[in-house]
């Protein structure tokens, strides 16, 4: 706080400054601004003292911007990010040589004068008058500190920076008044400490600690005499005296500093001469700033953390306010990223997809029951070069992802099944499910107006897929016509309500279109994080938790900030979730996802391949981890037919064929050494068609809901009833468009 006199009057120093107004203030201004002497003095005589009184009494000093460190869940460093590379240190942690060197070259009389150095002013005015310009300045170290405060407050706004550094009488007078305040409030040692922490030393280094690390890879407290003199010399002109790019100029300037230190008695002449003979020995550390430097391919997760901070109101009411806190930095952010899972995800991507392939792959893993994002990676690295990108394929557009997400194909079908089960349909539900059929003529929506067919048709993956089918076999084989008949039976509204509760939205953040293709066959773009988190709800027995990426945040001062918490709530019955788990176990045991199945633990999942094979998906989970893998072209222009991915040729890409193995390897490594809990099995009776195909209805249950047949899920309690709505067979056979591809979902 500023010091005030009783009754609100001026302090002695301020009274003196006002009394000397014209001679001191105008002289100081002249010493730093190239103006004709008569004109400037006249201007000062007319307005300086009056303007001095009008300047606010308190200098507002914003906290210095520093680097922010982002950590994984174990405390390992992911990356450092900063608008200005700075680490604030106490004066006791700065080499005495450095303290003496900066004072010697910038303000040798620092400890002898107040905010204004009268001798320096007169000397500079005289010199500048002789030279006809600014040959010598008279700004004290305190004044320089105040100017740096204005620059720091301006941030990266070029207009504000220009205002903070403009060579005008008004700025100089304002600077002088605040210098007086600072001198009275802080004292010399604190001013020196603040100056050393705020000033710019070139090479993106702000403050003495960052500068010492940049040029010599050591802490400021360990600087030698010749090193301290070199850094002190940089301050006057960081570009001109940059030792990295112009060693000759830098060493001349260093020797000037050394001589100045000898002249004022800080070191002996012998010490200065000896130091002058030492060549510059830099040990430069390159700036490590931003998510591009993240370890284990976690650049996209790092960027996601930043977007979470900038978008969540818990960190500030407006995005501008949150951005100011982020840019100020000095934070230590511990995240949810699991380093083992992240390494495994990146290793799997590298093994299966090459960086320069025509298509890319992305994977996201989350923890059921907490919403913690455990891993996030993709085959094209975070960067600006060829076959690199800054677009995070795993998240929604507002969080740095693609504009619309990616069509998910048949990975959407479990949402339809969950909605049907919640409506009371049994898992033995049968539909005719022909190879090819039109959409139902009319399907109820949440409003009064039903969806009506305008000639849309669909078909299954191959002509052999002909019903009737029950839910278990339809899910394992990913039968399109079955699930369209199911949604025709229950209506669109239950699916809308289910996906809303699961947090499933399009990649652009908007709700899903209310029509059969996106709500059955996954023709609408969705982000991998959204899919992984929705499936985690099945693993968590029907309780959905919103994604979270930040565990804790501490400020530079050690204060803990409030962080967003995952919000969890029951969105379906445990019975429904357990049934979906049982159905999707069948997919990896004997259905379209067999290449993805894990052998050492309970797991479940669903494949998805979209029209023209532009996208392939596998979304799967165990009771303690859920993951989604997408493979495709971000531009959606590549058809994955007759294509080589990761050095392997594919005539046709399926969800179980490329994304499935990526998921399998990533999950196996991520879960190595972890517990292997079981799902709660549900017995699903066999249908007459399954028995006709040679299955034994009396085969004993294996205790996990299976009928002791590989991949055949089951349980302990049968669902009653079988329904076969004949009215869903007919309809218009004319092919049409449905706001998406009519056959958006393939196995």
Structure write-up:
By secondary structure, the protein is an alpha+beta fold. The chain has a five-stranded mixed β-sheet with strand order 2-1-3-15-16, covered by helices on one side. Strands 5-4-20-19-18 form a five-stranded antiparallel β-sheet. A hairpin with a 6-residue loop joins β4 and β5 (373-378). α14 crosses α15 (319-328), α17 (413-422) packs antiparallel against α23 and α18 (471-477) crosses α23 (574-590). The longest helix is centred in the N-terminal third of the chain and has 18 residues, at 37-54.
Which descriptors apply to this entry?
alpha+beta; 25 helices; Transglycosylase domain-containing protein; 747 residues; five-stranded mixed sheet; single chain
Quick summary:
The chain has 25 helices and 22 strands. The chain is of the alpha+beta class and 747 residues long. A five-stranded mixed beta sheet has the order 2-1-3-15-16, covered by helices on one side. Strands 5-4-20-19-18 form a five-stranded antiparallel beta sheet. Strands 6-13 form a two-stranded antiparallel sheet.
Which structural category fits the helices and strands? alpha+beta
Strand adjacency order, main sheet: 2-1-3-15-16
Average per-residue pLDDT, rounded, comes to 84
Low-confidence stretches: 1-50, 133-137, 694-743
- Termini gap: 68 Å
Strand content: 5-15%
Which sheet architecture does the biggest sheet show?
5 strands, mixed
Broad shape? elongated
Strands, count = 22
Count of alpha/pi helices = 25
Radius of gyration using CA atoms only: 35 Å
Q: Helical percent range?
A: 25-40%
């Amino acid at each position: 706080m500023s010091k005030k006199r009783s009754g609100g009057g001026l302090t002695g120093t301020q009274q003196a400054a006002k009394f000397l107004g014209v001679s001191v203030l105008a002289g100081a201004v002249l010493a730093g601004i190239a103006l004709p002497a008569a004109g400037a003095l006249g201007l000062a005589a007319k307005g300086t003292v009056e303007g001095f009184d009008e300047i606010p009494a308190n200098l507002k000093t914003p906290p210095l911007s520093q680097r922010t460190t982002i950590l994984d869940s174990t405390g390992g460093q992911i990356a450092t990010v900063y608008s200005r590379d700075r680490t604030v240190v106490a004066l006791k942690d700065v080499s005495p040589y450095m303290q003496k060197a900066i004072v010697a070259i910038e303000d040798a009389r620092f400890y002898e004068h107040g905010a204004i150095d009268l001798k320096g002013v007169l000397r500079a005015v005289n010199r500048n008058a002789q030279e006809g310009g600014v040959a010598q300045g008279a700004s004290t170290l305190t004044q320089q500190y105040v100017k740096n405060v204005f620059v720091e407050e301006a941030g990266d706004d070029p207009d504000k920076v220009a205002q903070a550094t403009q060579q005008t009488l008004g700025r100089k007078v304002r600077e002088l008044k605040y210098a007086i305040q600072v001198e009275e409030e802080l004292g010399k040692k604190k001013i020196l400490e603040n100056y050393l922490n705020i000033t710019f030393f070139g090479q993106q280094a702000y403050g003495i600690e960052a500068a010492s690390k940049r040029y010599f890879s050591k802490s400021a407290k360990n600087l030698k005499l010749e090193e301290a003199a070199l850094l002190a010399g940089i301050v006057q002109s960081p570009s001109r005296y940059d030792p990295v790019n112009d060693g000759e100029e830098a060493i001349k300037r260093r020797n000037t500093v050394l001589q100045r230190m000898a002249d004022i008695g800080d070191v002996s002449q012998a010490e200065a001469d000896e130091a002058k003979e030492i060549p510059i020995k830099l040990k430069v550390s390159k700036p490590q700033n931003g998510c591009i430097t993240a370890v284990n391919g976690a650049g996209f997760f790092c960027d996601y953390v930043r977007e979470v901070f900038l978008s969540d109101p818990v960190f500030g009411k407006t995005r501008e306010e949150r951005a100011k806190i982020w840019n100020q930095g000095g934070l230590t952010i511990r995240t949810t990223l699991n380093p083992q899972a992240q390494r495994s995800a990146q290793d799997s991507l590298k093994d299966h997809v090459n960086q320069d392939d025509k298509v890319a792959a992305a994977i996201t893993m989350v923890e059921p029951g907490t919403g913690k994002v455990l891993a996030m990676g993709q085959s094209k690295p975070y960067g600006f070069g060829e076959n690199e990108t800054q677009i995070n394929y795993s998240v929604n557009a507002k969080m740095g992802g693609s504009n619309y997400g990616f069509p998910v194909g048949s990975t959407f079908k479990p949402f339809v099944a969950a909605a049907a089960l919640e409506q009371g349909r049994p898992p033995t539900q049968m539909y005719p499910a022909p190879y090819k059929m039109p959409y139902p003529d009319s399907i109820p929506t949440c409003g009064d107006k039903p969806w009506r067919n305008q000639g849309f048709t669909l078909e299954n993956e191959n002509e052999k897929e002909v019903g009737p089918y029950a839910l278990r076999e339809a899910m394992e084989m990913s039968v399109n016509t079955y699930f369209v008949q199911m949604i025709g039976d229950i209506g669109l509204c239950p699916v809308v309500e289910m996906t809303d509760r699961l947090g499933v939205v399009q990649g652009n953040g908007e709700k899903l279109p209310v029509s059969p293709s996106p709500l059955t066959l996954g023709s609408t773009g969705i982000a991998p994080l959204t899919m992984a988190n929705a499936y985690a709800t099945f693993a968590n027995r029907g309780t959905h938790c919103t994604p979270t990426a930040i565990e804790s945040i501490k400020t530079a001062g050690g204060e803990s900030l409030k962080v967003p918490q995952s919000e969890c709530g029951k969105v379906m019955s445990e019975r429904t979730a357990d049934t979906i788990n049982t159905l999707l176990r069948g997919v990896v045991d004997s259905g379209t996802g067999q290449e993805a199945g894990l052998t050492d633990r309970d797991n479940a999942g669903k494949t998805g391949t979209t029209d023209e094979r532009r996208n392939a998906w596998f979304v799967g989970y165990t009771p303690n981890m859920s993951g989604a893998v997408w493979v495709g072209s971000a531009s959606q222009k590549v058809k994955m037919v007759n294509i080589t991915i990761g050095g392997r040729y594919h005539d046709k890409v399926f969800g179980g064929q490329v994304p499935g193995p990526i998921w399998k390897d990533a999950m196996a490594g991520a879960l190595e050494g972890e517990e292997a809990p079981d799902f709660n099995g549900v017995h699903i009776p066999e249908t007459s068609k399954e028995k006709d195909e040679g299955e034994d209805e009396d085969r004993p249950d294996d205790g996990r809901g299976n009928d002791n047949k590989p991949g055949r899920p089951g349980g302990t309690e049968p669902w009653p009833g079988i329904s076969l709505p004949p009215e869903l067979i007919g309809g218009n056979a004319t092919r049409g468009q449905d706001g998406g591809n009519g056959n958006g979902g393939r196995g």
